[in-house]
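> call design_seq(struct)
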């Protein structure tokens, strides 16, 4: 790879950089970053950066790659291609696979399948064996094998005592526990958010308090167990925002994420029984969306994650109540965030990059990409003002279950660079 970006806006929040620079990448390293024009060979690919932004590579800490066990939905190869197509250089794959990520063997399998990939894949392991909530998984062995956090994602760890044990057992390694926050006794057989729309459509509702009560419980447990690290996954309610905000004010080491669909859409999208608007947690009300955007702006919500959840056609083209929960998200996250947060002036571009690149790595305690001479380039190049129409036929994911087909977005991924590889967006 021998590539030169001229006059590109470089934004690296952790380096306090936001200025137009020239960048030369060759032989797997950043050879030059600065305002002057370096000497480059005639074999160098030159790209004008006048309409582009270069940021540290985007990182998604909540992705379902489905492999092993559900390769008919997605594989590590296709999921990471989708990630690269959306501008991501790193992802965390969630453990609700078959078998679940509860053994060193499964982690080693994931690592072998993702070796040499442009996109770095970090495994999240289960808290309990087979995600059954009965016995703790071999947590130390999983940490040593490369697990970056623990969750029984796909379902909530219902037992408060088991959650307490997980906090206590992992305390000596200061491990990160993350939770799918859902009190299942209140949500069994739900189809959407509980409220006016669910009543009008005659669908079983999922009350917001079912999310809030688990977050409150876990925050109390994390505090009781010695201020342990805790991350609330894909929060969706104004109550969740309030609980996390209050915990942070008390000095607790609590973090959280939100998905683009939860700051863009409401439960009104379900009208017409649109199965691509069916997910868990469900789309909420406009009041929840407004609280989420406020939480993003004031720093309560640390990062944006996609909860990329691919499903086969037959799992979505069915009765709404029987449809699988979840949507694909890796390829639309950048455009949705730029359109609905940055261009709407809810966040600055620097704040947005922090939530899409810096903060996820900070929470996971993994190295940050540095944009300077001699560093291995780990970069996302995007056109913040370019309009484009989402066309899922150009998606790299095996699945196309997205409610954003045909939507016009402003802000488009262009190039993803990592591990001495470059990917040009297909959109």
């Amino acid at each position: 790879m021998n590539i030169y970006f001229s006059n590109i806006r470089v934004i690296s929040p952790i380096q306090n950089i936001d200025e137009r620079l020239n960048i030369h990448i060759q032989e797997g390293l950043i050879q030059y970053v600065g305002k002057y024009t370096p000497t480059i060979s005639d074999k160098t690919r030159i790209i004008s950066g006048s309409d582009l932004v270069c940021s540290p590579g985007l990182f998604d800490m909540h992705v379902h790659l489905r492999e092993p066990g559900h390769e008919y939905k997605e594989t590590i190869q296709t999921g990471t291609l989708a990630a690269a197509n959306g501008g991501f250089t790193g992802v965390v794959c969630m453990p609700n696979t078959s078998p679940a990520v509860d053994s060193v063997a499964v982690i080693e399998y994931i690592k072998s399948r993702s070796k040499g990939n442009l996109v770095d894949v970090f495994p999240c392991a289960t808290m309990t064996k087979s995600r059954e909530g009965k016995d703790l998984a071999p947590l130390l062995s999983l940490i040593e094998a490369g697990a970056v956090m623990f969750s029984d994602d796909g379902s909530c760890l219902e037992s408060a005592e088991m959650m307490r044990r997980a906090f206590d057992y992992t305390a000596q390694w200061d491990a990160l526990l993350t939770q799918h926050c859902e009190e299942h006794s209140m949500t069994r057989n739900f189809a959407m958010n509980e409220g006016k729309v669910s009543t009008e459509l005659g669908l079983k509702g999922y009350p917001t308090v079912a999310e809030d009560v688990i977050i409150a419980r876990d925050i109390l447990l994390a505090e009781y167990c010695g201020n342990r690290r805790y991350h609330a996954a894909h929060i969706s309610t104004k109550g969740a925002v309030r609980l996390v905000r209050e915990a942070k004010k008390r000095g607790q080491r609590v973090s959280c994420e939100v998905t683009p669909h939860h700051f863009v859409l409401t439960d009104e999208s379900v009208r017409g029984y649109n199965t691509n608007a069916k997910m868990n947690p469900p789309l909420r009300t406009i009041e929840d969306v407004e609280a989420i955007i406020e939480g993003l702006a004031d720093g309560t919500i640390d990062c944006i994650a996609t909860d990329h959840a691919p499903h086969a056609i037959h799992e979505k083209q069915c009765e709404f109540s029987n449809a699988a929960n979840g949507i694909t998200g890796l390829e639309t996250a950048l455009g949705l965030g730029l359109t609905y947060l940055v261009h709407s002036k809810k966040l600055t571009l620097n704040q947005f990059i922090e939530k899409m690149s810096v903060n996820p790595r900070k929470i996971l305690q993994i190295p940050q990409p540095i944009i300077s001479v001699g560093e291995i380039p780990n970069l996302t190049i995007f056109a913040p003002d370019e309009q484009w129409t989402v066309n899922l036929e150009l998606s790299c994911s095996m699945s196309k279950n997205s409610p954003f087909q045909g939507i016009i977005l402003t802000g488009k991924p262009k190039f993803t660079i990592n591990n001495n590889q470059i990917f040009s967006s297909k959109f």
